[in-house]
Write a structure and sequence with these properties.
2 copies of one chain form a homodimer. Chain A has 307 residues and is an alpha/beta fold. Chain A has one domain: 3-Layer(aba) Sandwich (UDP-N-acetylmuramoyl-L-alanine:D-glutamate ligase), CATH 3.40.1190.20. In chain A, a hairpin with an 8-residue loop joins β6 and β7. In chain A, α3 runs parallel beside α5 and α8 packs antiparallel against α9. The longest helix of chain A is centred in the last third of the chain and has 18 residues. The first copy, chain A, is globular and about 75 Å long. Chains A and B meet through α7, β13, α8, α9 and α10 of A and α7, β13, α8, α9 and α10 of B.
């Protein structure tokens, strides 16, 4: 079993009210793969520039992530500079340089075509092209962002229609549907075709919808958040890693996978870049999963409550 | 068993982007008592003006709420006008007329002094005065608001020190402690003396802290929210009603009480004023409690997850 992920590998500069880091590893693929690799084999389809540090390749290699399909092209690696204010949500983009990512044309090798596919946030035209190549994927999972909802909605809707699982955050869900409540938005989005919808709700946690079933969890409580970058992709990595590891696509197992993703994201935001993901073990994840169960579960209501 | 509640009874004008209502029943005491009365006896200590409609007295009477200690004074009942924008949080106050509430001097009858006491949001000086009278209360539960944190912090801290349970919302918790994270704020507030702290987190739900234990729940998912007024007091009414009904003050039972409060608040916001509370049954509450359990609980992680 394996997951193929297609998206960006980036070099980030990040500023928060508490700290500032430069030229750190970023991009959806990096967070996703370093999260999912705790549980399953991950294969990256991506591109970097000739400036991409050998150390970062080593980061992936140490985690046995398949980097054979990362193309190295003459030029600069995708670069993003973002700044967070005190509420640590919705960063301000200070600078984006696409570099070699600007003409990224992913090709899926034959032996990847049966994998679970994670289409990280990229141009819907590219996502459609990948879908055409990936005709026998076990599970197609889609992420996107506000920018594509605003600029390429029609193409995006075609991708959404073909997704088994669509992962989106609450502001994107509102933008896509023009509905104020995430729970009304969810209904509309399910009508667009995806079998399962996950809405990431930032500090409110996450919600999952499929048919008439749904599931909601709060975010794991943290006293300090250092850098929210990559939380969503780490979430997706934890979620899909768990599904691929267990091979169980029942809604009951999706619930546990969602909690596992939630836990993964809670670790990512505790440090800058992918640092925390490199310093935790599967056992840490398991312990936090169990802790989360303890702090969110409650017993049945007393049957005898009557006045 | 009974709960004594001290606070405001008001006549509200409420405007949301969807509707507008005038001269409806409001005030912390109204929401609290009409929520708690599903589960236990409630006794109101309050004051209204000579303009207070007999119909509203009937609302309380029909629910067997003890209104013998509501004083009727010559003058106007406390009046609040608020307007909500599209995000339906933090209303803008358009007008406040204290009326007869301006020199409210509550006196606790001898036979109320063993009750659970809910000190709804009022002047901390009045709250201290009540505490002096209420020397044998089984459980002292406190609410407050930003205004008192900013204008009477020292007095408020004395009340907090004496509270068994302190209920506050997340922006108030941040203001009181100067901490950005509600989970750090919680630690600081527990150091002020209350045995248990509950932080209401709006659309993110609620969190409860005591010693080293804590518990978090998401808000009940709703597609339409009509009017958030009174959600916090309904929450407190459901929470304390459940505790008084069951007579169980263990942390495990507090968890269920918190969920019950959460459910109560979810009903209140589905209609204007106290309307929804007048149109649901204990069975509705029980069903939504069970539904909430179903949509938030998950099974244990597979023990065998290893790569």
């Amino acid at each position: 079993m394996a997951i193929t992920v297609v998206g960006s590998i980036a070099i980030d500069n990040i500023e928060t009210p508490f700290n500032k880091v430069s030229n750190v590893l970023g991009g959806s693929v990096s967070f996703f793969s370093l999260a999912a690799c705790f549980l399953t084999e991950v294969r990256i389809i991506g591109v970097v520039g000739s400036d991409f540090s050998q150390n970062y390749f080593e980061v992936f290699k140490k985690k046995s992530i398949d980097i054979s399909q990362i193309k190295i092209k003459e030029g600069k690696t995708f670069h993003w500079e973002g700044k967070y204010d005190y509420n640590l949500s919705d960063p301000k983009t200070l600078n984006t340089e696409l570099g070699v990512f600007s003409d990224f044309q992913p090709i899926i090798p034959e032996n990847f075509k049966n994998d679970i596919l994670f289409l990280a946030n990229i141009d819907p035209d590219i996502q459609l092209n990948i879908l055409k190549q990936m005709n026998s994927s076990r599970l197609i999972v889609l992420d996107t962002m506000n920018f594509w909802i605003e600029s390429k909605k029609e193409k995006l809707l075609k991708v959404i229609e073909n997704a088994d699982i669509f992962i989106i955050n609450s502001s994107e869900a509102r933008l896509l549907t023009n509905q104020a409540s995430v729970f009304s938005a969810a209904k509309s989005i399910l009508n667009l075709g995806p079998k399962t919808l996950i809405i990431k709700r930032g500090e409110c946690g996450a919600a999952m919808f499929t048919g008439n079933k749904f599931f909601i969890v709060p975010a794991y409580p943290l006293e300090d958040i250092k850098d929210p970058t990559g939380a969503g992709d780490s979430f997706a990595g934890g979620f899909l890693g768990y599904i691929d590891n267990t091979g169980d696509i029942s809604f009951e197992n999706f619930k546990k996978a969602l909690v596992f993703g939630n836990i993964m994201a809670s670790y990512t935001v505790e440090d800058f870049s992918v640092n925390k993901l490199l310093n935790i073990s599967l056992n840490d994840l398991r312990n936090r999963f169990n802790k989360f169960k303890e702090i969110t579960h409650f017993e049945n209501i007393y049957n005898e409550i009557i006045k």
